[in-house]
């Protein structure tokens, strides 16, 4: 709770005789919201000093101040258990000094009775109407359909990132113990890997070029949707050296497609601190999804550039306000739903496809299998795409068996719903192979040592489906 904050804030509280604020104070709200960014330690000295000096008026004012905090910012306490724990310690201290009235003012039990209907837990539901019928075969999917569904998944992940998650990232400078942000990173990395694997899944240079071209068209649609984060993931996957080294494949890519690819790469380039991206992003209105890593870096830069305190140990309110405004801008973007509809069956298949994780070595092994290294060429050093921000280095999606099993079950339901036309509990081997070929890495893994393949999971779940039908 960090009650040393009160020295700077109690003066902002214009209270009536009952301890209620006489007017709304935006500066107070910002400071209370952002307090833990600069004050991580506990300090009950202000209250204890007031007790020692027998300043009952100041003690009451402090407790009314805390009551206001609990009442108006109860979500902060719901989301931060350490804040609740610190408040309980403060209650013990107050009670130990015989101040039962004060103790009642700072009671946190009321928080548990508050309606827990946070915006970020509300689900955006895919359209289940029959009008939104799409194919589950990759080759039959239009770029617009892919971009819509990738944007649906991206926005679903982006809108779950809370104000507190951004604060945690600022304080820790990493995503450790920040699962919501880790999931967002995993999705971005998963899309980038999926793009690479879909290109590499095709056996001939011409077929690989067709997939490459399709993803360029997907990128154009993502740009139109103003979904810059997924755009970065897709272009980053195509820029990856496991793909760029495929000279035979690139020979089948038309000049006009390469021109678009280069324009997209230039748009997302880190040159001059992502200047091209920033200008394009700032010109966008209505729905948009930012390149999250770029904006998180901005938060860290701002946090490190400005001191926490000014002269006489006064809180640097300008720093808090600047950080608050940056975070609030990202939070407000969550209110604007994407202008699209999603088919839940394709969502299930894409979700499973993006859950799977492969190492750099595994991807390069497949790349070299498709187009072996030329004896005349120097060995290629694996490199990451130049457009991808390094804010999440070292973070990779880890396949969780329970999660994958859940996603497989949903995918199986979707496959049977779309391909079991006579509803007899069976789909043909031909149809199964078409789906498996469309999303090959959703159905099997490359490494023989990881022999519990998704294909086996799919088969076992399918068997259960057949038995239950």
From TrEMBL:
<keyword id="KW-0479">Metal-binding</keyword>
<dbReference type="GO" id="GO:0042802">
    <property type="term" value="F:identical protein binding"/>
</dbReference>
<keyword id="KW-0863">Zinc-finger</keyword>
<keyword id="KW-0963">Cytoplasm</keyword>
<feature type="domain" description="N-terminal Ras-GEF">
    <location>
        <begin position="1"/>
        <end position="113"/>
    </location>
</feature>
<dbReference type="InterPro" id="IPR011992">
    <property type="entry name" value="EF-hand-dom_pair"/>
</dbReference>
<dbReference type="InterPro" id="IPR018247">
    <property type="entry name" value="EF_Hand_1_Ca_BS"/>
</dbReference>
<dbReference type="GO" id="GO:0005829">
    <property type="term" value="C:cytosol"/>
</dbReference>
<dbReference type="InterPro" id="IPR000651">
    <property type="entry name" value="Ras-like_Gua-exchang_fac_N"/>
</dbReference>
<dbReference type="GO" id="GO:0046579">
    <property type="term" value="P:positive regulation of Ras protein signal transduction"/>
</dbReference>
<dbReference type="Pfam" id="PF00617">
    <property type="entry name" value="RasGEF"/>
</dbReference>
<dbReference type="GO" id="GO:0042098">
    <property type="term" value="P:T cell proliferation"/>
</dbReference>
<dbReference type="GO" id="GO:0005085">
    <property type="term" value="F:guanyl-nucleotide exchange factor activity"/>
</dbReference>
<dbReference type="InterPro" id="IPR008937">
    <property type="entry name" value="Ras-like_GEF"/>
</dbReference>
<dbReference type="InterPro" id="IPR001895">
    <property type="entry name" value="RASGEF_cat_dom"/>
</dbReference>
<dbReference type="GO" id="GO:0008270">
    <property type="term" value="F:zinc ion binding"/>
</dbReference>
<dbReference type="InterPro" id="IPR002048">
    <property type="entry name" value="EF_hand_dom"/>
</dbReference>
<dbReference type="GO" id="GO:0030101">
    <property type="term" value="P:natural killer cell activation"/>
</dbReference>
<dbReference type="GO" id="GO:0000139">
    <property type="term" value="C:Golgi membrane"/>
</dbReference>
<keyword id="KW-0333">Golgi apparatus</keyword>
<dbReference type="GO" id="GO:0032252">
    <property type="term" value="P:secretory granule localization"/>
</dbReference>
<keyword id="KW-0862">Zinc</keyword>
<keyword id="KW-0344">Guanine-nucleotide releasing factor</keyword>
<dbReference type="GO" id="GO:0051896">
    <property type="term" value="P:regulation of phosphatidylinositol 3-kinase/protein kinase B signal transduction"/>
</dbReference>
<comment type="similarity">
    <text>Belongs to the RASGRP family.</text>
</comment>
<dbReference type="GO" id="GO:0005789">
    <property type="term" value="C:endoplasmic reticulum membrane"/>
</dbReference>
<dbReference type="GO" id="GO:0043303">
    <property type="term" value="P:mast cell degranulation"/>
</dbReference>
<dbReference type="GO" id="GO:0005509">
    <property type="term" value="F:calcium ion binding"/>
</dbReference>
<keyword id="KW-0256">Endoplasmic reticulum</keyword>
<dbReference type="GO" id="GO:0045954">
    <property type="term" value="P:positive regulation of natural killer cell mediated cytotoxicity"/>
</dbReference>
<dbReference type="GO" id="GO:0007265">
    <property type="term" value="P:Ras protein signal transduction"/>
</dbReference>
<dbReference type="GO" id="GO:0005886">
    <property type="term" value="C:plasma membrane"/>
</dbReference>
<keyword id="KW-0221">Differentiation</keyword>
<keyword id="KW-0472">Membrane</keyword>
<feature type="domain" description="EF-hand">
    <location>
        <begin position="407"/>
        <end position="442"/>
    </location>
</feature>
<dbReference type="GO" id="GO:0047496">
    <property type="term" value="P:vesicle transport along microtubule"/>
</dbReference>
<dbReference type="GO" id="GO:0070372">
    <property type="term" value="P:regulation of ERK1 and ERK2 cascade"/>
</dbReference>
<dbReference type="GO" id="GO:0031210">
    <property type="term" value="F:phosphatidylcholine binding"/>
</dbReference>
<dbReference type="InterPro" id="IPR023578">
    <property type="entry name" value="Ras_GEF_dom_sf"/>
</dbReference>
<dbReference type="GO" id="GO:0032825">
    <property type="term" value="P:positive regulation of natural killer cell differentiation"/>
</dbReference>
<dbReference type="GO" id="GO:0030154">
    <property type="term" value="P:cell differentiation"/>
</dbReference>
<keyword id="KW-0175">Coiled coil</keyword>
